[in-house]
Amino acid sequence: MLTLEILAVLALLLALLVHAMVRSQWQRRASAALAGTRQGARILIVDDDPDFSRITKRILETHGYDTLTVSSGTDALKVLYYARGNRPDLVLLDIMMDYVTDGLDVRRSMQQDPDLRHIPVVMVTSLTGVRGQSILPRREYAQATGWLAKPVRADQLVNIVKSSLATSPSYLPAAVPAPS
Questions:
Q1: Which of 58, 116, 138, 150 sees the fewest Cβ atoms within 10 Å?
Q2: What does residue 121 show for φ and ψ, rounded to 5 degrees?
Q3: Are the C-beta atoms of 164 and 124 separated by less than 8 Å?
Q4: Strand pairing partners for 66?
Q5: pLDDT 10s digits, 122-141
Q6: Quick check: 110 and 87 in contact, CB under 8 A?
Q7: How far is Cα 180 from Cα 171, in angstroms, rounded to an integer?
Q8: For the whole model, what pTM was predicted?
Q9: Which residues pair with 68 in a beta bridge?
Q10: pLDDT of 110 over the 80 cut
């Protein structure tokens, strides 16, 4: 008797799990279709804060983007240099990671590389206000498509990603053929 009850509970839990997985996948597709996002855009999230990376990844994937996360500037440059045929369409780049200007140095390296300079970069920082901004180099040092201050709201994140991709000459939505 007890075994049948346990089996019934397990079957119910399995059914709920399958339902949740299918519903989650459907919601992601529906959300992306309704939001009008470009399916398949690859976004590299570079941040040493695992909570920020996890939440950002979840938000962007919910809106139909493909994401990859790394936790240092060194790892970001490895991805950018070695992923020749599969480079990201956009980089979300934290400024302070292994050292204070790690993200700025990554952006500077990208600007100096002809194969990487076209990739839009959104700089992310927890340094806000006059005091925080005073320790950063001028924006000309590390040109960025946009800037986000932590904590980042989901709508701000999605809007800046959309607008950055829209202005990128190298990114075309999957449904639009490349010009010949």
A1: 138
A2: -130, 130
A3: no
A4: 42
A5: 999 887 654 445 555 545 55
A6: no
A7: 15
A8: 0.68
A9: 44
A10: yes
| Token duo for residue 138 | 């001028």
- Domain boundary assignment for the chain: 1-29, 39-166
> Would you state the structure tokens that stand for residue 153, as one six-digit string?
């709201």
Distance (Å, rounded) from C-alpha 43 to C-alpha 53?
Answer: 12
CB-CB neighbours of 17 under 10 Å: 10
Burial (CB count <10 Å: 0-12, 13-18, 19+), residue 63: buried
CA 23, CA 11: separation in Å to the nearest integer?
18
Kindly state the average pLDDT of the residues 75-88. Answer: 87
- How many H-runs (helices) and E-runs (strands) does the chain carry? 6, 5
| The pairing of beta strand 90-94 with beta strand 66-70 | unpaired
* Cα(88)–Cα(79) distance, integer angstroms: 9
* Runs of H (alpha helix) within the chain: 2-35, 50-62, 73-82, 102-112, 129-134, 154-166
Cα separation, 105 vs 38, whole angstroms: 29
